[in-house]
Amino acid sequence: MRYWAYLAGKLVVAAAPLYGLLFWVQRVFPAPRYKGMTRKDLGLVGLMFEQSLKYEIALMVLFLLTVGVLYLIVWDQRRRCRVCLRRLRMPVETGSWSYMLQLGRPRIESICPYGHGTLSQEELQISGGQSSEWTPHSDDIWDELSAASKDSGQEP
User: Fold this and answer.
1) Which of its termini does the chain have fewer beta carbons within 10 Å around, N or C?
2) The pLDDT of residue 42
3) Tens digit of pLDDT for each residue in 43-97?
4) What is the DSSP secondary-structure string of 71-102?
5) Strand partners, 121
6) Of 138, 130, 140, 82, nearest to 110 (Cα)?
7) What's the confidence (pLDDT) of residue 77?
8) Which residues contact 31 (CB under 8 A, 6 or more apart)?
């Protein structure tokens, strides 16, 4: 739940300055008014087109900026721990394109610095399917290490 609340908080924080920029664009470049215009007003069309072009270019730049900010927010959110919200560390590449049949498709695995889980992502997403998988770990990270030593027959 905290993971999604953090995403919503980032979106709200980013929306405030973007909304301020939209308000500024509307004040500096007022939207053109076309009501009541007839064919006789062809002399005014050039002036209205110039005003409209400036307004529409400003809106296009604002739209591109908004899409870029949203992309960065989602990109950052996908690379955070689902439990503690810290950035995932130590990316390790597994698999190989040349040994794909033996080792599987190449993936990049990153872990939480506090051992909460592992994020496994495809190195190159070819299909439109799910590209990442979060694997939570148990609360006691020493359980997995001691279980590996017990399987091998050694006592800790």
Assistant:
1) N
2) 47
3) 555 555 666 778 888 999 999 999 999 999 999 998 899 889 899 998 888 888 7
4) HHHHHHHHTB-TTT-PBPEEEEEE--STTHHH
5) 108, 132
6) 82
7) 92
8) 55
Determine whether 123 is exposed, middle or buried from the number of CB atoms within 10 Å of its CB (0-12, 13-18, 19+): middle
Q: Which long-range contacts (CB under 8 A, 24 or more apart) does 5-10 make?
A: 6/77, 6/80, 6/85, 7/73, 7/77, 10/73, 10/76, 10/77
111 and 89 in contact (C-beta within 8 Å)?
Answer: yes
For residue 48, give the nearest of 38, 28, 33, 59 by alpha carbon: 33
Q: How confident is the model at residue 35, as a pLDDT? A: 58
- Return d(Cα 117, Cα 90) in angstroms, integer: 12
pTM beyond cutoff 0.85? no
